[in-house]
């Protein structure tokens, strides 16, 4: 009788944990869905109807065009929407995609400022937003993305100084900020980036270089 009761209690506990985990996973993927729908809502032009015809609550977020989910956690792992002629601004809600590793919006017409909220994506390894119309400064909080390996900001309208915090990106292998409107001195903190293999800062208005060794 005691053995039977123990088994029942163990089963009940396991069932409770399963339901709790299922609810948590559902909540998390719902968070990802809300973030992506907020992103979609700020797109003002989608000439090929890539998102308007596909990004729907009628299907799983993991089946949406440009979206890949992590098999283990079932969370959005990459968002790749390059070369789609999309126009609009980037929603700060993308900063809620806490499992995102790749964000690639290359060669579209996204404008406005780069949301500081993206700097909450602590798992991010690739940020590719070249060939767009972003403007304003590069957020200093970008230096918080400690896992970042590839950062492409080239061919936009970014202005102001490169933040000193860029030197905190110790995993960074490639950095491109070419063909913008950046000015001021190139920060000495770039010398801290021991993993850096490639850097392109051409066609800006910088007032010097921290070292000829990085160019």
CATH class bucket: Alpha Beta
Look at the helices and sheets and give the structural class.
alpha/beta
Number of domains: 1
How many individual β-strands? 14
The DSSP helix count reads: 1
CATH architecture call:
Alpha-Beta Horseshoe
The portion of residues assigned to helices is 10-25%
* Rg on CA atoms, Å: 21 Å
What is the overall pLDDT average? 88
Major sheet: arrangement of strands? 1-4-6-8-10-12-14
Distance between the termini: 77 Å
Structure description:
Residues 1-23 form the signal peptide. It is an enzyme of class 2 (transferase). It is a peripheral membrane protein. Keywords: Cell wall, Disulfide bond, Kinase, Leucine-rich repeat, Membrane, Plant defense, Repeat, Secreted, Serine/threonine-protein kinase, Signal, Transferase. The protein has 215 residues and is α/β, with parallel strands linked by helices. It has one helix and 14 strands. The model is unreliable at 4-27 (pLDDT under 50). It starts with a helix and ends in a 9-residue tail after the last strand. The strands form two sheets. The chain has a seven-stranded mixed β-sheet with strand order 1-4-6-8-10-12-14. A seven-stranded mixed β-sheet has the order 2-3-5-7-9-11-13, with no helix packed on it. The protein is globular and about 55 Å long. It has one helix at 2-41; strands at 43-45, 67-69, 76-80, 87-89, 102-104, 109-112, 126-128, 133-136, 150-152, 157-160, 174-176, 181-184, 198-200, 205-206.
């Amino acid at each position: 009788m005691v053995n039977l009761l123990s088994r029942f209690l163990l089963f009940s506990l396991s069932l409770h944990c399963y339901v709790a985990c299922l609810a948590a996973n559902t909540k998390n993927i719902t968070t990802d869905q809300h973030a992506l729908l907020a992103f979609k809502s700020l797109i003002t032009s989608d000439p090929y109807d890539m998102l308007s015809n596909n990004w729907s609550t009628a299907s799983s977020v993991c089946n949406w065009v440009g979206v890949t989910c992590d098999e283990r956690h079932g969370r959005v792992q990459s968002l790749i929407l390059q070369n789609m002629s999309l126009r609009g601004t980037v929603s700060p809600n993308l900063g809620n995609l806490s499992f995102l590793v790749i964000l690639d919006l290359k060669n579209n017409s996204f404008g406005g400022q780069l949301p500081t909220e993206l700097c909450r994506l602590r798992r991010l390894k690739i940020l590719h937003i070249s060939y767009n119309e972003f403007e304003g400064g590069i957020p200093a909080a970008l230096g918080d993305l400690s896992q970042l390996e590839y950062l492409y900001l080239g061919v936009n309208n970014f202005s102001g100084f490169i933040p000193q915090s860029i030197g905190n990106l110790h995993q960074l292998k490639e950095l491109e900020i070419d063909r913008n409107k950046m000015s001021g001195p190139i920060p000495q903190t770039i010398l801290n980036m021991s993993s850096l293999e490639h850097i392109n800062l051409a066609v800006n208005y910088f007032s010097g270089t921290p070292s000829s060794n990085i160019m």
